[in-house]
Design a protein that fits this description.
The chain is mostly helical and 196 residues long. It has one domain: YP_001051499.1 fold like. It contains nine helices and no strands. Helix 3 runs parallel beside helix 5 and helix 4 packs antiparallel against helix 5. It is globular and about 40 Å long.
């Protein structure tokens, strides 16, 4: 199983072609779209909700060989990531930032063919799981080995690592990327219902 060891993930991503890396990163972003949408609805930002969906869709389209303006959309996604120094922190705002960052990394993957960018898209899923666990279970940071072990065994962490593993296997075995995207979207809907 792939855990949060970034080097292991990079080794799996490295041999993939540009389209496959991008499809993987776009699936990571797709899993987070519904969390971002929940935040957008809470703050009344319907434009953000619409634009992020378009940007994530564009990353998937790029992977499928369709022409997109990846540079412009990457910049737009990056602009959606909240500044950590700004006031008004909330879990929802952070989840929305993770979603926008994953979308930006998916587009950067397309632009650069760098497996690190795709790994950073997956990192957004892991960071989201970490925050969700901290919010729901402890309300703080993981500080002891026992707490870290409990987190690694938690359903939220296990579901994310399982999704990453399954997505990689789907890409490596040549399964349909549209199927991958649909599964990521459905699982993202289920995931948002379980998140604090």
């Amino acid at each position: 199983m792939i855990d949060d060891n970034e080097m292991l993930l990079m080794l799996r991503l490295e041999p993939l072609d540009r389209s496959a890396k991008t499809a993987f990163a776009a699936a990571c972003a797709q899993r987070l779209v519904h969390l971002s949408n929940r935040y957008s609805q809470q703050v009344g930002d319907s434009l953000r909700e619409q634009r992020l969906a378009v940007i994530v869709s564009a990353a998937s389209q790029a992977a499928a060989g369709r022409g997109i303006d990846a540079t412009r959309m990457k910049a737009e996604a990056e602009a959606m990531v909240p500044d950590e120094d700004e006031e008004g922190w909330s879990a929802g705002r952070t989840y929305a930032g993770n979603a926008a960052a994953a979308a930006a990394y998916a587009l950067r993957t397309w632009l650069t063919n760098d497996p690190q960018e795709a790994a950073w898209a997956a990192r957004q899923l892991l960071d989201t799981a970490d925050l969700a666990y901290s919010q729901a279970i402890r309300g703080g940071d993981l500080t002891s080995e026992d707490e870290e072990k409990a987190y690694l065994e938690s359903p939220v962490f296990q579901s994310v690592t399982f999704a990453i593993q399954r997505d990689l296997e789907a890409i490596e075995t040549g399964r349909s990327w549209s199927e991958l995207r649909q599964r990521a979207e459905l699982e993202g809907k289920d995931w948002v219902a379980s998140m604090p």
